[in-house]
C-alpha cells in the first residue's frame, strides 16, 4: 500500500500528486516554485504514472500510452492502404473462389495478399484485433486522465497558496496599499462577471472561471470514437451487416448470401445510346451504354427456420435494378454492379447413327443443373454419368472441376439405343467428343448453337450498424467543437497585506486570457500591459 503525500497545509494527497489538492502548493517531490508547471491535469497523479508493478498495471500502462495508440492507428491505416492494392473478395470481377482468383490474376503477390487475409481485410482477425486495441486504448487513455482531472477541478479551492499563483504562466504581484481589500475584491468580482466569468469568493480571494466544459471536449470525442468503433465491430454480429456479391443468370433463382431471401433475374437489359441522342459534332467510336438493368424478383424462404426443408418461396418484392437505383426491402439493398454477356447456359446436341447418318433426335444438356437422364427420341436415351463444370486434370491425370461455374464443361454420358442396348460411353467437351475406348462411336454427337444468357453482378448490402456509427460520429464532432472553439479560462485575484496577487491559466489562447486580465485590471485602476504580465511571470 502506497502512503499518501502530506502537504504543509495538512492535506494528504495521493502518491504522484505534484500540486496539493487543497491549497495548490507544489509538493516536496514535485515542481520547484521557480518552474512553470504543466497544468494539463491540475498536478493530479495518473494511475499509469504511479502503479507499475503487477501485470494489470503493465496492461493498463500499455493501453494508456498515447504513443502505443498512435502506433496502432498507423498500423491500421497502413493495412487499409494495402487492402486497396487489389480488389476485395466481394468485388472480384469474375465468379471464382478467392484462393483461385488472386494467384491467377496477380501471381505471387496475389497469393501473399490472399494468405495474409488482405482479400477480406475488414473481417480478418488481425485487423479486428487492431480495432479492438484502439478501442481499449481510447477507454483506458480517457479513464487514466479524466478521473484525476475531474477530481482536481471539482475540489479546487478559491484561496490558493502563494507558490501556486507564482508558478502560473501568467502572474503578477501588484501594489494594493491604500486600497480597502473588501472594496477591491468586490470591484474585481464585478469586472469578472462582466466578462462572463463564474466567480467564487472566499474572503479577499477571487476565482473567476469560464469554459470549464471545454476540458471535457476531448473525452466526449473519445466517447464518440468508442461508439463509432463499437458500431464498426457490430458488423461482425450475424444479421447486423451484409456486404456480398452475387452473380445471377437470366431465368435463374439464386439464394442471397447470409439471408432468408432468394433472387430471380427475369431479364438483363443493356440499352445503348442512339445516334440521334448525341450532338451532331460528337464523334464516338463504337457504342455507348445508356443503362444496365436487371428485372428482378425477390423471394422469401418461408421454410428457412426448418433445417433440411425444401425452400418454400414467397414473392416479397419486384423491381428493375439499375445503377444507383437498387432494390430495397426491409433494409436489404441490391445494387447493379456488373454484367457478363453471352454466358453458356446449355449445350444443344444432335444425335446421329454413324453408319447410316440417320438422325436419332436431339438433347439439351443444362450446364447449371443437368438432368440425370435425357430422352433424345422414343428409342434413344442419354444418361449423364458425370459432369465437370470447369474441367481440368489433377496431378494424377484424374478429371476434376476447378469451380462450379461452367467455364469449361465436360460430360461423361452413356447413350442407350437399339444399336447400343448396353450403352455407349462418351466424353463430351466443348466442340468435341471422345469414346471411352478411343474407337469410332456408334452414335455421333453433333454440336448445335448453345443456349447463351446474360449474367448480372449484384452487390448485396445490409447495414443495421449505420445508426450507431452516425450517432458515434455526431458525439465525436460535438467533442471536437467543444475542445476547439472554447477555452477553459481561470483568473485568480488574492490580496495579501498590501499586495494584490494576480494569476491566470488557460488550456489554450494565452493571448486572449492575458488581454482579459489587462482589461479587468485597467477597469480597477491598474495599468499594465500583456507584455508586462508575461515579464512579471518570467521574473517570479
From TrEMBL:
Keywords: Cytochrome c-type biogenesis, Membrane, Transmembrane, Transmembrane helix
Regions crossing the membrane: 68-86, 125-147, 219-242, 466-486
Residue ranges of every copy of the ResB-like domain listed in the record: 66-517
Protein topology in the membrane: Multi-pass membrane protein
Predominant cellular place of this UniProt entry's protein: membrane
An annotated GO BP: cytochrome complex assembly
A Pfam family reported for this protein in Swiss-Prot or TrEMBL: ResB
Entry GO CC: membrane
Name assigned to this protein: Putative cytochrome C biogenesis protein ResB
Natural source organism: Aneurinibacillus aneurinilyticus ATCC 12856
Amino acid at each position: 500500500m502506497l502512503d499518501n503525500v502530506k502537504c504543509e497545509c495538512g492535506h494528504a494527497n495521493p502518491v504522484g500528486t505534484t500540486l496539493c489538492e487543497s491549497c495548490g502548493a507544489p509538493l516536496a517531490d514535485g515542481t520547484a516554485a521557480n518552474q512553470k508547471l504543466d497544468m494539463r491535469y491540475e498536478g493530479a497523479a495518473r494511475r499509469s504514472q504511479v502503479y507499475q508493478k503487477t501485470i494489470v498495471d503493465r496492461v493498463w500502462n500499455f493501453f494508456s500510452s498515447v504513443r502505443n495508440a498512435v502506433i496502432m492507428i498507423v498500423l491500421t491505416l497502413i493495412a487499409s492502404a494495402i487492402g486497396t492494392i487489389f480488389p476485395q473478395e466481394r468485388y472480384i470481377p469474375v465468379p471464382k473462389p478467392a484462393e483461385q482468383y488472386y494467384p491467377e490474376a496477380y501471381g505471387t503477390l496475389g497469393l501473399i495478399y490472399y494468405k495474409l487475409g488482405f482479400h477480406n481485410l475488414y473481417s480478418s482477425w488481425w485487423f479486428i484485433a487492431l480495432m479492438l486495441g484502439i478501442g481499449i486504448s481510447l477507454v483506458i487513455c480517457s479513464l487514466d486522465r479524466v478521473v484525476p482531472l475531474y477530481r482536481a477541478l471539482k475540489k479546487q479551492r478559491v484561496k490558493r497558496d502563494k507558490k501556486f499563483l507564482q508558478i502560473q504562466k501568467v502572474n503578477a504581484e501588484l501594489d494594493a496599499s491604500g486600497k480597502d481589500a473588501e472594496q477591491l475584491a468586490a470591484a474585481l468580482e464585478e469586472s469578472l462577471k462582466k466578462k462572463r466569468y463564474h466567480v467564487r469568493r472566499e474572503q479577499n480571494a477571487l476565482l473567476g472561471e469560464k469554459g470549464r466544459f471545454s476540458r471535457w471536449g476531448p473525452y466526449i470525442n473519445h466517447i464518440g470514437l468508442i461508439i463509432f468503433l463499437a458500431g464498426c465491430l457490430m458488423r461482425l454480429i450475424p444479421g447486423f451487416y451484409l456486404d456480398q456479391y452475387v452473380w445471377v443468370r437470366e431465368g435463374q433463382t439464386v439464394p442471397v448470401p447470409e439471408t432468408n431471401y432468394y433472387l430471380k433475374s427475369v431479364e438483363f437489359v443493356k440499352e445503348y445510346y442512339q445516334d440521334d441522342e448525341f450532338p451532331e459534332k460528337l464523334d464516338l467510336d463504337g457504342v455507348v451504354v445508356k443503362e444496365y438493368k436487371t428485372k428482378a424478383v425477390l423471394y422469401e424462404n418461408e421454410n428457412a427456420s426448418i433445417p433440411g426443408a425444401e425452400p418454400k418461396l414467397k414473392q416479397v418484392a419486384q423491381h428493375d435494378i439499375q445503377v444507383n437505383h437498387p432494390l430495397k426491402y426491409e433494409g436489404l439493398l441490391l445494387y447493379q454492379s456488373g454484367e457478363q454477356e453471352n454466358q453458356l447456359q446449355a449445350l444443344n446436341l444432335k444425335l446421329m447413327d454413324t453408319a447410316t447418318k440417320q438422325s436419332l433426335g436431339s438433347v439439351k444438356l443444362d450446364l447449371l443443373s443437368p438432368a440425370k437422364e435425357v430422352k433424345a427420341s422414343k428409342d434413344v436415351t442419354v444418361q449423364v454419368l458425370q459432369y465437370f463444370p470447369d474441367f481440368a486434370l489433377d496431378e494424377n491425370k484424374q478429371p476434376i472441376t476447378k469451380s462450379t461455374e461452367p467455364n469449361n464443361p465436360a460430360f461423361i454420358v452413356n447413350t442407350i439405343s437399339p444399336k447400343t442396348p448396353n450403352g455407349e460411353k462418351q466424353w463430351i467437351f466443348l466442340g468435341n467428343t471422345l469414346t471411352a475406348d478411343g474407337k469410332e462411336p456408334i452414335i455421333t454427337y453433333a454440336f448445335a448453337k448453345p443456349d447463351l444468357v446474360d449474367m448480372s453482378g449484384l452487390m448485396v448490402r445490409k447495414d443495421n450498424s449505420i445508426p450507431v456509427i452516425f450517432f458515434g460520429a455526431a458525439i465525436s464532432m460535438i467533442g471536437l467543437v467543444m475542445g476547439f472553439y472554447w477555452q477553459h479560462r481561470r483568473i485568480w485575484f488574492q490580496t495579501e497585506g498590501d499586495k494584490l496577487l494576480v494569476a491566470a491559466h488557460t488550456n489554450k489562447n494565452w493571448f486572449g486570457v492575458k488581454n482579459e486580465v489587462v482589461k479587468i485590471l485597467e477597469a480597477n485602476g491598474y495599468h499594465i500591459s500583456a507584455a508586462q504580465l508575461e515579464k512579471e511571470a518570467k521574473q517570479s
